[in-house]
Amino acid sequence: MTSFSNSSQVKILIVEDDQFMQAILQKFLSTTYEIIIKPTGMDALSFMQSGNLPDLIISDLNTPKLSGLDLIEQVKLSDFFNSIPIIILSGEDSSEKRVKCLDAGADDYIVKPFNPAELQSRIRVVLRRSGKFLANL
């Protein structure tokens, strides 16, 4: 899939370069949400600049070409994208990294490996806070 559909389903842009993690996220989230996966932060930015606006971005912290932290900063600097909530997924359980991402504008920070049910709950919380929560979730 190269762009989001026009459905009313919540649209999540996943930025993840690891194919195993892509498959896990696709499996657990695609039953509830419309998912598009991009392997780098640059790919994600280009995708959004082409008019594909997600309701939520889930990004790995360490992606090639543009890190998750850099992606947060780019999204929050943009008048078009700055209201899109961002959840960071990372294998780094560093308080310093968490604080840096949250201060830069991330809405949540989840450490891998994660419980898929917890990720679903955190997605619902972030969507509810952003006003994008849909009753059917």
UniProtKB/TrEMBL annotation:
Keywords: DNA-binding, Phosphoprotein, Transcription, Transcription regulation, Two-component regulatory system. SUPFAM superfamilies: CheY-like. Signal peptide: none annotated. The keyword rRNA-binding does not apply. The keyword Hydrolase does not apply. PROSITE patterns: RESPONSE_REGULATORY. InterPro entries: CheY-like_superfamily (IPR011006), Sig_transdc_resp-reg_receiver (IPR001789), WalR-like (IPR039420). The modification 4-aspartylphosphate is found at D60. It comes from the Bacteria. Pfam families: Response_reg. Residues 11-127 form the Response regulatory domain. This is Response regulator. It comes from Mucilaginibacter panaciglaebae.
